[in-house]
Each structure stands twice: as C-alpha cells, then as structure tokens.
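Appendix B. Chain record.
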Amino acid sequence: MGTITRSFANNITTSGVLLPASLTNNSIANVTAYNAAIATGGMKLISSQTASNSASISFTTGIDSTYKEYQFYFINVAPRNDSDYFQFNLSTDSGSNYNVTKTSTHFDAFANEAGTDAVLAYETAWDLAQSTSFQVLCWETGNGADECVGGSMQLFNPSSTTYVKHFIANLNQYYNANYTINHYVAGYGNTTSAINAIQFKMSTGNMDGTILMFGIV
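Structure tokens predicted for this chain:
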C-alpha cells in the first residue's frame, strides 16, 4: 500500500494539482458523467432550421457567451429565383436589425462542366469596406431542380465586448451556367457590442434548404 501511496503522491504538485502523467484511461474507474464545468471537446448542435420557400433563416437565440466559436452548415440551400445571391448579416439587438458594420474579403475558384474554363479570382464586387450591407457568400446560384449551395461558416467569440467579431466561410455552389464555384469569404463585424443573432437569405427571393448551428466546446 505504501508503494501505491508514494506513486500517487509523486504525481501531485505542491499546490495539490494532479500532473497530466497521472491521468490515463485507467486513472478513474466507472466514470459515468462529467461535471458540467468540464469541457470535453467537440461540437454541440444548438439549432437546425429548414427553409421551404422562405424569405430567410434567422438564429435569434442560442448565440451567447456559452461558446467561443459557432459553426453554421449550409445543406442544399437553393434559391427560388435564378441567379440569386446567398448572403448574411449580424445583429446586436436580438434580430430587430441586421446591420453590423463589416469589412471583408472574397475570392473564389471555379471551373465549368466542359472542363474548358478554370479561374481563380479575387472578387472586389463582393467584399465590404465598413459597410452595414449583407455579406455575399456566393453569387448567381441557379434555381434548377438540382442546383444549390453547400458549405460552412465560422463565427468567433460573438459575445465579446472587447474585440471585433471574425468570420470565415467556405461554400461551394452550382453556378447557373453549369460551373462549380468554391467561395472563400472572411472578415470581421467591426463592433465591440455582443453579436446575438444572425440572418441568412437570398438577395431577391425566397429559398429552400437547411442550416445547422453548432457551438464548439
């Protein structure tokens, strides 16, 4: 018993903290749950919304100080109008207004189905410079039966009252002229107010599709 006690004691600092070496798969027997304060890592699904000929999808709850990062996943987002633009904006007043000032950058890579055209381009038309406009994530998506948008977006520490709110998005679309276009969009909401709502919509018409919101532990 003395050997076990000494071995255990050797893995405790003078302030009573267990050293990492003491924590193995066999350190604690029969664990069935963790204290809620312990971060176990991974993604937590907070909300899932599906549009069916809807004007927009808005997340007005669940964006708070619980998580330092939020991720949104876009699944088969399709415009009802041909050549429509998928976009988003942020809110500091729980969705009463979507008008946060943003600065951003936007570039894309695209290729057509015939394999005759491939381009990498910076899109100056879709970046923002201290603008409250909606941020374009992808442009001129077709409204054919099989045409849609898929991708993801990260929003970092939206509840901070010290720093601006960074976002990074990567989406792929079926462009209306039979192209695949991979969009890379990044920037920041230039506000030190907490962001507590976000809205996604098309520029001119309604849309279909599902958007998932995850918190990152």
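Further analysis of this model is presented in Appendix C.
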